[in-house]
Amino acid sequence: MTDTTKATESAVRRDGSERPILEIKNLEVGFNTQNGLVKAVDGVNITLYRGQSLAIVGESGSGKSTTAHAIINLLPGTGQVTGGQILLDGQDLTKASKKEMEVVRGRKIGFVPQDPMSNLNPVWSIGFQVEEAIKANGIATGRKEIKKRAIEVLKQAGLQDADRRLKQFPHQFSGGMRQRVLIGMGLAADPQLLIADEPTSALDVTVQRVILDHLESLTRELGTTLLFITHDLGLAAERAEQLVVMYKGRVVESGPSVEILQNPQHPYTQRLVAAAPSLASRRIQATGSIAAAEAAMQSDAETAAGDEIDLLATAEARAELLAAAESAPPAITVEHLTKVYKIRGAGDFTAVDDVSFQIPKGTTMALVGESGSGKSTVAKMLLKLEDATSGKIVVGGQDLASVTGKQLFDLRSRMQPVFQDPYGSLNPLRNIGNTISEPLSTHGVGDRASRRERVFELLDQVSLPRTLVGRYPNELSGGQRQRIAIARALALKPEIVVLDEAVSALDVLVQAQILRLLADLQGELGLTYLFITHDLAVVRVIADHVSVMQRGRIVEAATTDEVFENPRQQYTQDLLAAIPGANIELGA
Amino acid sequence: MPSNTRPDQQHFVAPLEETPLVAIDKVKAEGKPTNLWTDAWADVRGRPMFWISSALIVLVVIVALFPGLFTQVPPNNDCQLSNSNGGPADGHPLGFTKQGCDIYSRIIHGTSTSLSVGIIVTVLVAVLGITFGAFAGFYGGWIDSVLSRLGDIFFSIPYILAAVVIMSVFSKYANVWVISLAIGIFAWPATARVLRAEILRVKNADYVMAATALGVSRFRILLRHVLPNSIAPVIVITTISLASAIVAEATLSFLGVGLPSSTMSWGNDISAAQLDLRTAPQVLILPSIALSITVLSFIMLGEVVRDALDPKARARR
């Protein structure tokens, strides 16, 4: 802002054409490992002009974060740029010295890190940390000036009562507030370019929306060029003019975002578009006709053998099942369920407040809510991992409160969970075979040989090779671990599976694959699912009924179609509107 | 959104040949199965420090088990005062003690005492520490309160001081077992604390919850899922505690409250030699070196094992 004239001058090349603010040419980044140099980024080209916004999209390991870190020369560990150029306003950053880089960081390029929870130092006050950033960039001198600027920066980032909150510590801020602080720090020195690495991935959708709206208006106001990284195609397309799709360290497709979304050319991008739940939701809405559904089924049949996944087809295939299940008796009945936690010194906290619902046999109910809404507590009470304070849970005609000992043991075999974190849900020291057969041995099902047979059968069901039996979880990806967790849950042929954020930690393609697997298994085995998630977009694809939870209460409950087409509560409407990509018109 | 796409930002699609698609979430499991222990073994195998310390420990164990292989000279019976504090002589490579006994033979025959005390104390500490730590950490509540306070009481008394007191009261019964008991009974709380902390971390893992939801009994969950995943730091700490137990025995013997002087022990020899430190320092220094090498090799092994089991420590290097 301060050197606008200078910036415009330098933005013109000698030959009169406009010079991009950021030009990445054939960038290669490698990591030194035991197996020699491994290329994480391989020949990436990105061109970004002043005032534009660009999103890099890709799954984990695609090299998107590495590219961003290479720009500001903050590659972790043994990472190094092994080729290519990064031109910031004509200056090659790959050749910049440490001193020169220090000037670039903060003052020319601002950076907003991914995790607002761990990127603020918990022992220093917010004010101290913002002031430190300001001091480091030499924007203001003198105590008063620095403090003034800190307040200004935080106000700009959307913290209205900044002067009062300066003395507070990070733990007194919510996730969204912390992310605002980090954005404020990134923009403190009024940089020309702001790099945001998954700035909202750790936040609830409604908060995410507010933060992104704010970031957008702020960068427009200040004329900052924005480069952000995300795994969410819908979000990228909605928030950025330019899109760069990365896959295995390479750019597979780039260009104007709407064009790419409407007309994806590269097979990988096509896959991504087909698998993104936020976009699939949109398309389900769009293709209300029978013809479209049939077309979807058709394409589904064609691609079933291959690797392509279309969430739309998954959803349509499920719709048929539902019709048959509608009249079934409830598998789970929950009445007036309440859970109160006693908190030392702070009185009672009601995590679940008078919750009632029924799940008909063979159907899926989604329990949707943001963090802290009490949805996982409901799951734990249903699984009898926690006791209810009051209320009633009836599973298959049995009241959970009265079940103990042997009865409870038997009941457990009919009701199994799959948890969120694929890295925490398998014992790292037990091999896959033992993990899957643990339910069988615990419940004394069959002898050794028949258990082994059943393990093979389950591995087949979750589409994993039988050779995995003797291996350990550390060799598997998140999606594969989640499959193992599903296999373990299915070992005892349960009627009910509680899926607690079971696909939330997975990349979209893998997520789509697992959702498809879950839908297939439900059709095959007649399972009843309680699907707990924060992601409304996924719900559209998998659930028959939806209950929306807010602060421990169910605020809206209806069939999935009703909730999506005619949400009655403001909160549900907000949630729906906050699904990234909800406003994009899809050509297809 | 205003369309301000520049000419060089048009829709670009990479040729498929250059960016071939790979099957989604393909299973890449080749070679031998690996887990924490196999990884640690692979890590340890490549370190010279591991082989040096292991070789020394093996040597010490062999010496302790078969002292006859290393010396034919009796350590006690053949002493002649005329050799008092004498230098090396034929058949007596390290010279003689004040009593005229062969130093080399005494060092060789003292090994088994030191090692026995080390091993007995370590087993005792491991059993007590693991039991107390595991129950306190896993069951929590009043069990934790009782066991942890008990541990705190033992922890508040330095184990060497406690051992001095116990040994001076029971000096009549002093032998390898009693001295090990005296050291071990106050040395376990450190192990228990480490394990308890680790168990508190592990017991919240989702796989523990999954096992609970399966109906696996609490005790079986502890044995099968929680303990194996929290035992690594205990292994490290016990390796090092073996070394400190050997030192403790020497200390007690040096102070005169350890083993009776009739028992061959490095601590006893060091104690006996201190009066002539100025005139015959080698009498004190030689058994001290034996003690140091033994202790050092266990500490070195502990370090290597810790590095292998704790990836964080590895990253720091």
From TrEMBL, chain A:
Residues 24-273, 332-576 form the ABC transporter domain. It comes from the Bacteria. The keyword Transport applies. InterPro entries: AAA+_ATPase (IPR003593), ABC_transp_ATP-bind (IPR050319), ABC_transporter-like_ATP-bd (IPR003439), ABC_transporter-like_CS (IPR017871), Oligopep_ABC_C (IPR013563), P-loop_NTPase (IPR027417). SMART domains: AAA. The keyword Transcription does not apply. Keywords: ATP-binding, Nucleotide-binding, Transport. One of its GO terms (molecular function) is ATP binding. PANTHER family: D,D-DIPEPTIDE TRANSPORT ATP-BINDING PROTEIN DDPF-RELATED, TRANSPORT ATP-BINDING PROTEIN. Belongs to the ABC transporter superfamily. This is ABC transporter ATP-binding protein.
TrEMBL record, chain B:
This is ABC transporter permease. The keyword Cell membrane applies. It comes from Agromyces allii. Belongs to the binding-protein-dependent transport system permease family. The lineage of its organism: Bacteria, Bacillati, Actinomycetota, Actinomycetes, Micrococcales. It is a multi-pass membrane protein. Keywords: Cell membrane, Membrane, Transmembrane, Transmembrane helix, Transport. The chain crosses the membrane at residues 50-70, 115-138, 150-170, 176-195, 233-259, 280-301. Residues 111-302 form the ABC transmembrane type-1 domain. SUPFAM superfamilies: MetI-like. PROSITE patterns: ABC_TM1. Coiled coil: none annotated.
